[in-house]
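Fold this sequence, please.
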Amino acid sequence: MPVTPEFLTDLETNMRSITVDQYKRLTRDTWWNKIAKVVPIKSKKERIHWLLETAQIERPNASHGGGQQIFEDMVSLHTEFEAENAVAALTLKKEQMEDLENGIVGGEAMRLAASWSRQVASHAAYWPQQEVGKALIANPIGYDGQNFFDVDHPYNPYNTGAGTYRNVFTGSASGIYPGALKIDSSVTVDVAVQNIAKALAYVASLKMPNGVLPRKLKLAHIFVPPALTARAQQVTNAKFIAQAASSGGGSGDVEAVIRNFGLGQPVQIDEIGSAFGGSDTSWYLGMEDITNDELGAFVYVDREPFSVNYHGPQTSAELARKRTFEWTLEGRNTVAPGHPFLLFRCDAA
C-alpha cells in the first residue's frame, strides 16, 4: 500500500507528541542551570562583554583637592563565542513506510520513528548538562586568560597590584587560603563541617575588582559526585555531631551553623565522578553574586534551540516520488566559561 498523506500526518503527529512529552520529562531532572546561564545570541559568533565592577565611593582628601570629584575608568573584558552545530537524523526507506509489520501498514516505520523521537528528545534535554559536565572536567581557559579553576585569577587584569584569588582549594594552606579540603569518609563529620567553614571563610575574603569592596558572594549550592552524596547529605542534615578533642569534645550542635552556611540539600552530579574523567573526592561550591546576577559560572550560548524538521503536509503525487524519508534534529550552541568566582572546586589533596 503506498504512503498516503494521512499516514505521514499521523506518523509525524505521533513523533511530535513523543518528543514534547519526553523532553518535558527529562528537563525536570537537571542541574546544569544551577551552574550555567543561557545566553541567546543572534549571529554565528558573538562577543560577550564582562564589565568589571571597579566603581567605588571615596572621600576626597587633600591630594584630590578637597571637594574635587574623583573620576575612575570603567573597564571590561570580552570573550568571543562561536555556536557549533549539533545534529541527529533518522532515515526510513519507502518500503518501511509501506510494508506490513504485525499486520499494521508501516508498522516498522512507526516503531522506529517513535523510538528515535524518544531518544533524541531525551538527548536534546540532556545536551546542555552533558556539555557543562564536560567543561567542568576540561577546565577551559576563561575570559581572564586563566584556566577556569586556577590559583591565580586576577581581581583586575588591568591592575596587577589588585592581587589574585583562587577558585580551587588544593595543596597546602597559606594564610586564610585553606588548601585541600576533604569531606569524604577519610575525615570525621566534624572535620568535614570545619572544612566547609574554611572554604566559605576564604570566599568571604574575595574583593571586587576595585580592590576595596568585598565581593559579597552567597552560598547557593554544594555539588558532589555520587561517591560523596551520602556524606554530603550527612553533613547538610546534621543536627548534632561528635566533636574531636581539639574542637571541645563531646557532642556539638551544628544545626544553626549549617543553616547559617546556607547549605541546602547537596546536588549530585554524576558527570564529575571518576567514571566520567573527574574525581570521586572533589566537590564544588556554587556561589551567588548578590550584586549582579547577569551571568553564571558558565554560559550556555544558544544560537539555535534544538528542533526537529518534519516533512509536513504532502500530496499523494509528492509522496509517490519519494524513495526515502528523513527527519533531522538540529541546534547550534556552545558552552563557555563565565565568572570563575561563582564556582569553587574543593580537592582532597
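The longest helix spans residues 107-138. The radius of gyration is 27 Å.
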